[in-house]
Amino acid sequence: MGMVVNRFEVFLINLDPTVGHEIQKTRPCLIISPNEMNHHISTVVVAPMTTKGRNYPTRIGCSFQGKKGQIVLDQIRTIDKRRLVKKLGVISKSTQAKTLNLLQEFFAP
User: Fold this and answer.
1) What is the DSSP code (8-state) at residue 99?
2) CB neighbours (10 Å) of residue 6?
3) How many domains does the chain have?
4) CB neighbours (10 Å) of residue 3?
5) Model pTM greater than 0.85?
6) Which terminus, N or C, of the chain has the lesser number of Cβ atoms within 10 Å?
7) What pLDDT does residue 108 have?
8) How many other CB atoms are found less than 10 A from the CB of residue 74?
9) CA 85 – CA 83 distance, rounded (Å)
10) Do the domain assignments include residue 19?
11) Among the listed residues 48, 104, 103, the one whose alpha carbon sits nearest the alpha carbon of residue 77
């Protein structure tokens, strides 16, 4: 099953190989899958993070480890926990709330 991870933790994750316009390379990603999933199966749902932001309505501005960037919810993907390189931290409570609100708009309008 791999390591135990929790929703809203940020991990450095190896996203390669990718195809087309998928965000690539090893980069910080936010765990967005619920803990009921994270604690029991070997995959997690993540949203990549970037410092090269665009003003899309599908992206959430955030500050993490002193850097301004975005959570890229238009690039959500499911990955195996073996892609996790290391834990970097946890996003703020206010960014957690913004993330959940936007995910709810996506999937439960």
Assistant:
1) H
2) 14
3) 1
4) 12
5) yes
6) C
7) 86
8) 13
9) 6
10) yes
11) 48
Q: With a cut of 70, say whether residue 17 has pLDDT above it.
A: yes
What pLDDT digit, counting tens, does each position of 76-96 carry? 999 999 999 999 999 999 999
Residue 74 lies in a domain: yes
**2-16, 36-50, 91-105: lowest mean pLDDT where?**
2-16
The CATH code of the domain that includes 19 is 2.30.30.110
The DSSP symbol for 39 reads T
CB atoms near residue 79 (< 10 Å)? 19
User: Do the bridges between strand 9-14 and strand 84-90 make them parallel or antiparallel, or are there none, so unpaired?
Assistant: antiparallel
The tokens describing 13, both together, are 């994750």
Tally Cβ neighbours within 10 Å of residue 57: 9
Q: Where are the alpha helices (DSSP H) in the chain?
A: 35-38, 93-107
- Taking the alpha carbons at both ends of the chain, their separation in whole angstroms is 33
